[in-house]
User: Which sequence fits this backbone?
């Protein structure tokens, strides 16, 4: 845990990152396990330097814990309840790990700083698991992908933060497919359906899914068909350069 | 301008409110004009007390400037660029209004506090203009509804904040119709279409709109028809108690 200083960071503001990974038709979340007694899993989190934007802070935090750079991340919600603080978790951590030098280094002032009320901005990303190499930080015992349906117990409100990220991921999937980079250059309708089924955790009717997805106007059907199959060759698609209608966002 | 104290508020965190109003098929925004020389329009804004949640702060700020209570508000985005500060605006304000007692009361320390970098959480609401009575605050010269297409010049990044709120309003309209309370108990398809046209600022094809909106599964068609019209009576609809599919949000 790098020592936060009152001068360097914006007070009482933190960032929590939910990194979704997709591989073999399964959706997972990247979660470090802390290198302390007591089995603590916590989302990659951190603070905002006075000299960086909140987006820059989110990317820095992500890279520091995972080695991942330059991926598409987006804020999805602020968690700002009055009682939101790491005090309970930190007290428990200290109690179980009294002998550890890392914690002894934490001065009382820093401890008080960290355990104040924090308003946290949630950021999420969705990446191809094959393309990232998670890296352990000093304070991590391990860092792993956990299936979104079998997450370990998370500290504080981090489980709620994952659920809110999942809600946003599903809501915005149609308009973010380009950014996520999860599909090859060209692909079949079946590959798209598998991606949607993994993210929504439900089957879509094969006779209805193509119409629904094509109505969104995010895919473009190519002349060339997929030729690997022995049976009737399916159409190939690619992503349009999608800009949603009526989107005044700068 | 009530004097902010360093102890009472979370540092460098503010809230900006975009209040959309709907009336006579037009979408407007509620904006106070500041009671200072220089024609300054600014969104209803404020800070977050240590003892309140960010949602509570948003409602308090809204009520303080508008007299509106208990309306549905939702956070939509955080504005967190490094250079985001009211310094330039405040310097200009002070220069133009040097003789004003209100500004003289602002101690240097408070001035420095207010003009630091602020990360701001945007909240938006959509209300029926007939149902609210905007109220002037001490520091407002006036408070008025401005058509969203003819907004006055706004301070800082407030124009961008309005655009982001508009983006979110359009994106989420289908799932929030209930909360907004803009339609009567029962209504015709034409009334729904007029609402959508005002908010999206574009016409929808009358032969296509009903199918599109009914596919969203937010409306329920009644047996009873509208009987006021002399010509063929249109169907009446009401809002379903809508809970969007796949919405894990708590």
Assistant:
């Amino acid at each position: 845990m790098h020592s936060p200083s009152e001068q360097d960071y914006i007070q009482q503001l933190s960032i929590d990152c939910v990194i979704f990974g997709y591989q073999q038709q399964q959706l997972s979340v990247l979660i470090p396990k802390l290198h302390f007694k007591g089995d603590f899993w916590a989302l990659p989190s951190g603070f905002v330097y006075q000299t960086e934007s909140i987006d820059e802070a989110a990317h820095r935090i992500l890279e520091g814990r995972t080695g991942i750079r330059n991926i598409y991340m987006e804020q999805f919600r602020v968690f700002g309840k009055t009682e939101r603080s790491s005090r309970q978790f930190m007290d428990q951590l200290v109690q179980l790990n009294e002998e550890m030098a890392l914690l002894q280094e934490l001065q009382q002032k820093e401890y008080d700083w960290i355990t104040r009320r924090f308003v946290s901005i949630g950021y999420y990303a969705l990446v191809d698991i094959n393309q990232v190499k998670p890296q352990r930080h000093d304070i991590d015992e391990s860092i792993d992908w956990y299936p979104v349906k079998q997450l370990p117990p998370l500290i504080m409100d981090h489980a709620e933060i994952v659920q809110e990220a999942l809600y946003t991921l599903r809501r915005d999937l149609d308009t973010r497919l380009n950014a996520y980079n999860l599909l090859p250059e060209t692909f079949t309708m079946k590959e798209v359906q598998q991606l949607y089924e993994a993210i929504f955790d439900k089957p879509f009717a094969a006779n209805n899914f193509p119409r629904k997805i094509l109505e969104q106007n995010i895919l473009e059907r190519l002349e060339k068909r997929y030729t690997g199959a022995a049976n009737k060759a399916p159409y190939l698609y690619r992503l349009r350069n999608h800009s949603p209608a009526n989107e005044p966002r700068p």
About this structure: The helical segments of chain B are 54-66, 87-96, 101-104, 108-114, 158-180, 189-200, 209-215.
